[in-house]
Amino acid sequence: MNTKKRIVILGATGSVGMTVLEEIARYGEHFEVVGISCHSNIERAEVIVRNFSVQALAVTNSQIAVPKNICGKIFRGINGLIAMVESLEFDAIVVAMAGVDGLRPVLRGIERGKVIILANKEILVVAGELVMNLARAKGVTILPLDSEHNAIFQCTRGDNRFIRRLWLTASGGKFWNQDRQAIENATVAEVLQHPKWSMGKKITVDSSTMANKGLEIIEAMHLFGVDPARIEVAIHPACAVHSLVEFCDGSFLAQLSPISMKYAARYCLFYPERINVSEQSLDIFQLNELRFFRPDFEKFPCLRLAIEVAQSKQSKRIAYNAANEVAVELFLKEKIALWAIPEIIEDALSKVEDKHYSTVEEILAVDQMVRSKAGQLAKRFNV
Ligand code: NDP
Ligand code: MG
C-alpha cells in the first residue's frame, strides 16, 4: 500500500472500536484515523484523539460537556455525527457504535461510496433491505466485522452464488449446557462473565440468551442474500471455527482463528489484501476436538423467536430488536430476571402488524413506538 487508508470509527470508545484501534496502532504505517465518535466516554475519546492525532470528534450524547480544545473539529449529537460523515475525506468507515442510531450515518457513508466495515448488527436487523439495496446501487462493499459474518465473507469473498447453507457457530454463552433453572435464576454478575469472549455488556447478555445468535441469523440473511431456512446455528464451545459455508457441490469451507475480534478487524482493515504477520496464531495441536451441538430452542426462546421474525416482515424484526434492547437494559439494572427477556420480546411482537417499510423515518418511528410499549409491558415482570 503506497498511501495510508483514511479511517473513520463510529463508537471508537467501545469494545470493538478499541480492538480496531489496537490493530491500527499495530500497523500504523498503513492507516490514518481521521474521525471518531463516542457517546459518553469523553475521557477515553480524548486519549484516542491524542494518540492517533484525530482531526474530528463527534460526541453523540448531547448531555455530555465537551472541552473546546479536545479536538480540531467537534460535532455534537446524532446530526453532528451525520455531518461528520458527510464532510470528512476518508476511505472506510468502521461502524462499531451500538444501536439503531447508526443507520443514518451508514446510509450517508454508502451514498458517498465509502467502504463500510460493519460490526453493528442492529442496523441490518431493522433496515437490511434499505442498506443492502443502497450498497448494491452504489457499488459499495459492506465488510462484515461481526466474527461469524466475517468468517463467512472470508469463505465466499463476496460471491454468494454457490451457497447451499450457512452454519453460524455460537459459543453457547454461559448457560448452553446448564439446566433451565440456572438460566432463569442467573444474576447480572454471572451473565456478564462470558466464558470465552470479552465484549460490551449488552451483547454479553444477548449471548447468554442466544438473542445474539438470533440477531445474527437476520444479519446473515441480509448480508449474504440467503433465505433464513438455509441458515443453521451450531453450538461450538471451543470457538475456534467462527462459521462455516456449505456450498452447493457438497464442500464446506470454514474460517478459524483464536478467540479475538482482532482477526476480523485485521481482515477488514487490509481487505482486499492480507497483512503478513509474524505472531503465533492458532496452535491446531491444541484443538483436541472440534465439536458442534444442536441448540435447544426450548431453553433459548430468544433464538426460536428470532427465527420466526426472520421469516416475517420488517416490523417484527424492528420489534424484536427494540424490545430485546429495552429488556436487556432492565435486566442490567436488576429490574427484571433473565427469563423475562423473551417474554417481553414475545409480548412486543404480538403488538405490531406484519409490515415492510421503505423509509428511515418509518423504521425509526416503529422502533421508538415498540420501545415505549416494551417499557410498559416490562412492568409486570418487575422484581
Ligand atoms: P460497547 O458497549 O463496548 O460500545 C458501544 C460503543 O457505542 C461505544 O463507543 C459507545 O460510546 C457507543 N454508543 C453507545 N450508545 C450509543 C448511542 N446511543 N449512540 C451512539 N453511540 C453509542 O459495545 P460493543 O463494542 O460490544 O458493540 C458495539 C457494536 O458492535 C454492537 O452493535 C454489537 O452488536 C456489535 N458487535 C460487537 C462485538 C464484540 O465483540 N463486542 C462482536 C460483534 C458485533 P461511549 O462508550 O463513549 O458511551
Ligand atoms: Mg458475532
How would you describe what is shown here?
The chain is of the alpha/beta class. The protein folds into 2 domains: 5-145, 3-Layer(aba) Sandwich (Rossmann fold); 151-258 and 291-381, Rna Polymerase Sigma Factor, Chain: A. The chain contains 15 helices and 11 strands. The chain has helices at 15-26, 42-52, 77-87, 103-111, 122-138, 147-156, 180-184, 188-192, 201-209, 211-224, 262-270, 301-310, 314-332, 340-349, 360-378, and strands at 5-10, 31-38, 56-59, 73-76, 92-95, 115-118, 142-144, 163-170, 231-235, 241-247, 252-256. Strand 10 and strand 11 form a beta hairpin. The longest helix is centred in the last third of the chain and has 19 residues, at 314-332. Residues 11, 13-17, 38-41, 60, 96-99, 101, 119-122, 146, 197, 199-200, 203, 261 line the site of NADPH dihydro-nicotinamide-adenine-dinucleotide phosphate (NDP).
Determine Rg (CA atoms, Å). Answer: 20 Å
Anisotropy-based shape? globular
- The CATH class label of the largest domain is Mainly Alpha
**Spatial order of the strands in the main sheet?**
4-3-2-1-5-6-7
Number of strands: 11
- Provide the CATH superfamily of the largest domain: RNA polymerase sigma factor, region 2, helix turn helix motif
Structural class: alpha/beta
**What's the N-to-C terminus distance?**
57 Å
The distinct ligands, each listed once, are:
NADPH dihydro-nicotinamide-adenine-dinucleotide phosphate, magnesium ion
Overall pLDDT score: 96
Largest β sheet strand count, sense and barrel closure: 7 strands, parallel
CATH architecture of the largest domain: Orthogonal Bundle
Quickly count the domains: 2
Question: Helix content range of the residues, please?
Answer: 40-55%
Number of helices: 15
Low-pLDDT segments, ≥5 res? none
Topology pattern, helix = H, strand = E: EHEHEEHEHEHEHEHHHHEEEHHHHH
CATH fold name of the largest domain, please? Answer: Rna Polymerase Sigma Factor, Chain: A
Proportion of β residues?
15-25%
